[in-house]
Amino acid sequence: MNKEISIVIAGPRGKMGSEAVRMVTETPHFKLVAVIDSRNEGMKLKDVADMPALDIPVYEDAPRCFSETHPDVLIDLTKPDVGKVHLEQALEHNVRPVIGTTGFSDADLERLKNLATERELGAIIAPNFAVGAVLMMKFAQMASRYLPDIEIIEKHHDQKLDAPSGTALKTAQLIREVRESKQQGHPDEKEDLKGARGAELDGIRIHSIRLPGLVAHQEVIMGGEGQTLTIKHDSMNRASFMPGVKLAVEAVMNVDHLVYGLENIIE
Ligand SMILES: NC(=O)C1=CN([C@@H]2O[C@H](COP(=O)(O)OP(=O)(O)OC[C@H]3O[C@@H](n4cnc5c(N)ncnc54)[C@H](OP(=O)(O)O)[C@@H]3O)[C@@H](O)[C@H]2O)C=CC1
Ligand SMILES: O=C(O)C1=N[C@H](C(=O)O)C[C@H](O)C1
User: Fold this and answer.
1) For a FRET experiment, which of 50, 61, 89, 220 has its CA 20 to 30 Å from that of 173?
2) What gap in Å lies between CA 77 and CA 144, rounded to an integer?
3) In which pathway does it act (predicted)?
4) CATH class held by domain 131-235
């Protein structure tokens, strides 16, 4: 039998957070003990509009939530500036963070990694919880050895705060691990309109599209002599992320450092 894991969710009214509330309450060995919201302090989840009828306390203050409810795990699905603070506060309170929130810089990741190591506590930051997206990233990394000219197009709904997406950044970082840095395109190319060639990480161009109607989509296009290879993933809804969130909650109980990327726990 699985050991019970007590969980706090930050961002319960959000598109991802509300899906996570559903997943946690439907998983027999998960127990939702509280939520952290940007409003509704002191209320019960059941009294918040559009939330399930649960007698779960709502906190606005993360440290107080952790001190009073002693969860095993925090699932954070908020926004970049909030997610990194919650991660630190969770570690300070001996709570293992599972962070889906994106928009972390390399410097943030380094600092948070050191913090988890110092405290010998498990933490997971996963830019994308969809198993198909993780495979897309790994396949792109494999293919980049053979077709090293690469551009990434990521497409998201128009409410997204960060650009490029965490997934696009992670994809480029995985490729950087195995591919020599290279200048792509014509050495003399120039942008007549600023941004026309997208953002750039280690020579890889990243283009971000934001439109209503989209959820989360990415194409990694690789070009070689007389051929292109496109590796593409689409999330049609937020339920697509939940098996990965569940996996991360279980995995974080068994690690004592920060893991960046779901590929490190599903291989
Ligand atoms: N790793 C993955 O697989 C995925 C990651 N994401 C990431 O998850 C994050 C959330 O995405 P999404 O659900 O679409 O965004 P939403 O805007 O729908 O939800 C974010 C929620 O966080 C709340 N929030 C803001 N500040 C705080 C705070 N201080 N404490 C608690 N809650 C707060 C917001 O409340 P209010 O509206 O009142 O500000 C809102 O309800 C983003 O960073 C996104 O990139 C998204 C999908 C998949
Ligand atoms: O904001 C989103 O929606 C998503 N964010 C993550 C990212 O930045 O990669 C994961 C997924 O793409 C959905």
Assistant:
1) 89
2) 31
3) Amino-acid biosynthesis; L-lysine biosynthesis via DAP pathway; (S)-tetrahydrodipicolinate from L-aspartate: step 4/4
4) alpha beta
